[in-house]
Amino acid sequence: MMQNLNTLISSAISLGFIKLEPEIFVANNLNPKFGLRPYQIEAFARFNYYTSEYPNKKSPIQLLFHMATGSGKTLVMAGIILDLYKKGYSNFIFFVNSTSIIEKTKDNFLNSSSSKYLFNDVISIDGHNVNIVEVENFEAVNKEDINIVFTTVQGLHTKLNTPRENSITYEDFEDKKVVLISDEAHHINADTKKGKLSKDETEDIISWESTVNKIFKTNSDNYLLEFTATTDLDNANIKEKYEDKLIFDYPLKQFRIDKYSKEVQLLQADLEPFERALQAVILSQHRRKIFEDFKKSIKPVILLKSKTISESTSFFQEFVNRIKSLKESDIEFIKNKNEKGIFKKIFQYFDEKKITLENLIIEIKEEFSVDKCISVNSKNDSDEKQLIINSLEDKTNEYRVVFAVDKLNEGWDVLNLFDIVRLYNTRDSDHKAGKIGKTTMSEAQLIGRGARYCPFQLDDTQPLFQRKYDDNINHPLRVCEELYYHSAHNPKYISEINKALEEIGLKAPKMVQRELKLKERFKETDFYKSGLIYINDRVPYDRSDVLELPKELRTKIFRIKFSTGYISTSRIFETENSQNNIRSTKIYTIDSFGEPVIKKAINRLPFYRFNNLQRYFPKLQSITEFINSSSFLKDIKIEIDGGQDLVDNPHKEVQLKSVISILQEISEYISNGFIEFKGSTEFKSKNISYVFGDKTLNYSVNESGDSEYGKPQTNSSETNIYIDLSQEDWYAYNDNFGTSEEKYLVKFIRQAYQALKNKYNDIYLLRNENHFKLYNFEDGKAFEPDFVLFMKESEQTKPIVFQAFIEPKGDNLLLTDQWKQDFLMQIEQKAKILEIYSNKEYRLIGLPFYNEDNLKHNFDTVFWDKF
């Protein structure tokens, strides 16, 4: 069977042919507060590979990015716009299906004061600053700007087919190459599905086929880039259409598995609508207090969803009035109805914090008063209200409750939504047996919008945009990683919404909780009570030892090539003579161009602002030193390649262009190699009993691509790698729920145990379930090795206690996680233990990756060589 484009590129990535690194100029020009997630970097790498190297690309280029709701598609669009601008494109048309999404997108692209602005404060490409400008057409635009027409596809169709003054016309495209960017692109596939079409879908087809395709095919250099979270790739017609166009498939299921979403909890209650809303209010206020306990200023938001606008309007008044007159008996009613689960924890928390019901009511009346409630049901809602709804995370935005029907089903990207209350109790009347109804699927997709992760971290070793407590679901902050969907008690509906959530990938078909417990007999050992584990810290890299540009830059000859016709096309140069067509080269040092030229080039590049340079070179005293010192720019060599006159007598513009080009290359090299932290070589002791303990773990069985993940190794009916670990004293925990490679490693240690006993005692293998981190010596990157093996030499006056870090690794991660093995193999030589004990000595060792099929022989050799 023929592989689609996405699969072909995935294969090239897995073989190491495509580097998953962003172009430095793209990363530097996007808003740094968002950071770039691995899958976004992969999207850029795929696009760059296709446009630059892919041998079978078709012109004009049409590509589809199928990316999960909440995955930051708009940031990817912004990065690709920068990439294409550098490739010579300055005219873009951004179109969607909804006017409200247009307003939100304009704010993200154009409003630098917006909390969701996508770009850096200054956009600098190839030495000059770039503006992003909204335009009506491309007739008199500045080619140095990024010019964007924002429109709906229907609006674009109307503008082109009923032209008016200053509006975009088909003539705009006759001699221009353009990039068409379609957001929520699934709307344009109604014709491809070949099903029964609604009136709106029919209009979409007419608009799409007669307008967008006509523009796209005007020029063979054009691009059509489609972005959506909900393309039906299981539909045979759509699958065939995008066989050679689907460049990246990152569905919601993978997004959730990678921990970028909240976990969804369905809470059904046999209560009236207001009581269900009050449950959400109590839960929301509990979350706010948990965030405050950890010094996080995050305001949780509730969505109250009605079936009709009239019902929503009516409930708005009921909610406001009943919150205003809230009594202790109302809270007591909710407390008595929920004597287990999350509400049991909530009321226990209130008791522990000595928060009386009276105080809670005062807070609720203030936090959920009428001026903190907003309704978004009217088609005539102002642009201002739309911006309020899209800025609910802002500290200045105090709204806690949103009342809506279906206006927020697309384009809403609020992150601090934690509760959705379904105020009605109807099911689809037209659904067939086994088929999910349209309304239920729409509700599931709304839950998907709310399930975007709300970023927070307790320290900078935690991931900001990912869940942190899957491995410790009893942690207080776990509730801040969950979205609760509140519905009436309706088992048939709950079954259907569960199926819908599974279908879109937001809920695992099988979720299990596992209790990981240290064996009681292990807790009684001296090793547990007084034993030590040595781990290192991450330390700031002060760069005080960085006193110059890297030698490879200072000794490199930078080659700048000019056309031999360059002189004749530049007004400031003398008239072309007969030598212009003779190509020549000559090497100059950068200082020979003079300080004014170098300063002018530096001023064109924000990277070379002095305060930024000092981040990389803390001992640097001034820009003048940077220009005139041999440790930095002074002796940099430039080879100019071009016409004889230009090479022999490079004019100021040639000099400036050359210096800008070199400085751009140097800045990318420095940025790429910048290290903010390092892992300390000093390993400090912590008590085993302090580091290791019991945990409740969450697993989505059979979703990780490893059939063993989440299954107990002690249960022969569930696992294929059975060991009764309850009988193995060397294994400290009651069970192992890890991957197949992790289970094979445990099997390896079991087989080695009898031989090890001849030389060692206190042999214990401990599973590291988020108990401790190590930090890579080179860049301080955090790493949690899966296991640590302890062994103490027997029959020695001063025995050596070995502590070996072990990481089993599946085939799919051997390449991408190579840095972890490199780090492990450095531990024995680099790790320093400063504490000295008179009765024992500690030795730290990192072992190579364990892989049952491919690396077991190497692991076995190193293991027995060490021990």
Furnish the topology, listing elements before pairings.
Layout: H1 5-14, H2 24-29, H3 38-52, E1 61-67, H4 73-86, E2 91-96, H5 99-110, E3 124-125, E4 128-129, E5 132-134, E6 146-152, H6 153-161, E7 179-183, H7 190-193, H8 199-216, E8 223-228, H9 236-241, E9 246-250, H10 252-257, E10 263-269, H11 273-293, E11 301-305, H12 309-324, H13 328-337, H14 341-352, H15 357-367, E12 373-375, H16 383-389, E13 401-404, E14 417-422, H17 438-450, E15 482-488, H18 491-504, E16 511-516, H19 520-523, H20 526-530, E17 532-540, H21 551-554, E18 557-561, E19 583-589, H22 595-604, H23 610-616, H24 623-628, E20 637-643, H25 644-648, H26 652-672, E21 677-687, H27 688-691, E22 695-700, H28 740-757, E23 760-767, E24 774-775, E25 782-783, E26 787-793, E27 800-806, H29 818-830, E28 841-846, H30 856-866
Parallel strand pairs: 1-8, 1-9, 2-6, 2-7, 5-6, 7-8, 10-15, 11-13, 11-14, 12-13, 14-15, 18-20, 27-28
Antiparallel strand pairs: 3-4, 16-22, 17-21, 19-20, 23-26, 24-25, 26-27
Helix pairs in contact: 3-4, 6-8, 17-18, 22-26
What does this structure look like?
The two termini are 49 Å apart. The protein has 867 residues and is of the alpha/beta class. It is 36% helix and 18% strand. Strand 26 (787-793) and strand 27 form a beta hairpin. A seven-stranded parallel sheet has the order 5-6-2-7-8-1-9. A six-stranded parallel sheet has the order 10-15-14-11-13-12, with helices on one face. It has a four-stranded mixed sheet with strand order 23-26-27-28. Helix 6 crosses helix 8 and helix 17 packs across helix 18. The protein has 30 helices and 28 strands.
